[in-house]
Every structure is written in structure tokens, then in C-alpha cells.
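Review form for a predicted model. The reviewer records the input and the model, then writes brief findings.
Reviewer: anonymous (R2)
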Amino acid sequence: MLDQKDNLLSSYNYDLPNDLIAQSPIESRHDAKLMIVKDGLDESLNLMHAKVWDLKEVLQTGDLLVVNNTRVIKARLKIRLSRGGLGELLLMEPRGNGQWLCLGRPARRMRRGDQLCLDKSPYDSLCLKVVDKDESTGGRIIQFPNEFTSRMEMENLLDLFGEVPLPPYIDKDKSSGHDEKYQTRFASKPGAIAAPTAGLHLSDELIENLKSRGIRIAQITLHVGLGTFRPLEKEDLSQLNLHSEWINVTEETIRAITNCKEDGGKVFAVGTTSVRALEAAYLSGRGVLKPYEGKVNLVIKPGFEFSVIDGLLTNFHLPKSSLLLLVSALIGRKRMLKLYQHAISKKYRFFSYGDAMLITPESVVQTKKSS
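Model under review:
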């Protein structure tokens, strides 16, 4: 039953000590702490402390993990402003014909018609043009030169001049090697501007161990963008909209899910992006899980009825984020906040490089749709 506070953004806030914000991943990846949320009612604390490596004991033969295979692109470009000074662009999504939606900094100094030249470019005149402002995001529509209109050419450009866009709470100067640290072992489809961070916990050794025990793995693609990581601003969540993100749920993955359920196994999403992709594909099929490729802007918050997933492996997320709303839809907002406070007391590490939580099917308080 929904609480009236479930639709208030301020109800998803909590205080986190700065020293619990992880600045680099644990080595090995599977040695991160794992809070296993077991059966119980909305506000109970029925849990177990373990490590991610223990997933091989918790999951059962026949269970299925669904991972996101998106790869983070080097989407941050340093540029020289036409009126002097330096700035940067964060590429969000292609708009066709060499145009990209970008977040600019400082945006107020990027006006329509301005030329933005790549900082430290070996070319004499590799400059971009501000075409327009995007009112829905506050971003800028940027025109790249004609020679960079294809996907391959853009990837080459970003590999040469771009940087991996780490979250602002990670101090990139304190640790090196982020280009690979900030990619999952499944990262094969370039297009994300942030990592699907739950997947960072799955090491090669753990993946092979899970497979040897009959735990299967399927893949979806969701290119993480504004819809996942942008902070929410409006207090009233009843009419919440998120920026759309591109997904691909294939026939192969649909078969894996169908076979898993028919054999009595459970479907565990690895990360909130996998949840959104699978549930969006189900809704697009009007009550049938079908392959889907395209953009989605699905909002999952308390009251949402899940139709595909049975459980979730996820990180500990930022206050007032859409990701907290999704977790609350599974286990209840009050219980989520209580679990987070417990994690803080036990010195769990938070956010992208932090520790993990496993929400088991028995702990899900939201009644699922009947198939």
C-alpha cells in the first residue's frame, strides 16, 4: 500500500558521510560487500552480510542473471570557446547528420552560432558549431564536421580526444586506470555516458564460477544517459518524466528468460538499467515480453507492477535519484531507507565503485502481475 510520502522527492533523502563514497573499486571486483535482503515486510531488517563472491552460493542452478552490455564512450571533450577561455562538452546522444545533444560547461557562454574548437587538437581547424539550445534538457545541439558523421568516425574521434565521463563525486586525480575500471566485463556496445555499475562487481572468475554451477547469463543493452543519472528536481513525483534512453532486448534474451521461468528458475536483473529495459520491453509488447529496440523513458517508482524480474543486484545509490525510486518500488521506501542507514552504520561503500545489495525474490513487497 502506497504512503502519501512515496510521491515526494524529499522522502528519498538520506545523509551520507563523504568517506563512504567509494573512489575506486575493490580488487578483486567480487570482494565487495554484499547486503542480501531476505524475506520480510516493508520495514523489517531481515538481511545477511556477505561478499559478492558469495552469489555463487546464494543463486540457484537454473537462475538467470540479465546484464547490461553497454560500453561507456569517451564522451567528455575539452574545448576552446569562441570568446576565449576553456570549457567542455558531454556528449549525450546523436541527433543525426553529425549533430549531438551535449551538456556544455559553461553553457551560458555557448550561444547559437558559436564555434567550439577541440582543445589541444592536432588539427588546425577542427571546430564544432553550436546549432541550438535543447529546451527540455538545457543542453546544446552541436554540429560536428562532415568527416565525423558516421559512428565509426565519431568513435575514433572520441578515442583520440575524449575522456571517460566519471561521476563528479569520483576524484579522478586520486586514482588511475579509470578507462577500464569504469567498464563492466560485458561492455561491448559503445554508447553510454555512465557505467551500469552493478555489473562492475562481476569478475571473470565469478562469471565462470556461476556458469559452472548452472547459473545462466543473458544480455540487454541500455545506453545509460540522462534518464538514469540526472538528479531529480521537482518535489511532486506523481507526474515524473525521465529523459529517454536507447535499449535493445533481443530474441535470444527473451528465450533465456522464458526458459528460466519454465524451468522454475528466477530472473535477477544486474542493475537498475536491466530492470528498466526488461520491464519496458514487456510494456511495449502489451503484456507479452517481446524483443524491442528503441527509446524508452519508463519511470519505476512505488506502485509499479513488475512483470519480468524476480530479484535485483544493485549498488547503493545517490539520494533523491530515480534509482532510489526503483529500489523502493521493489522493497518499499521505508524499508529501503532503513537498509541504507544500516549500510552506513556497517561502513558499506556507496555509489558507482561501492558495495552491492541483492534483493531476493522473497524480499519483494510489490505484488507482481500474473502472467
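Findings: The mean pLDDT is 92.
Further findings: Residues 272-284 form the longest helix (13 residues).
Recommendation: see findings above.
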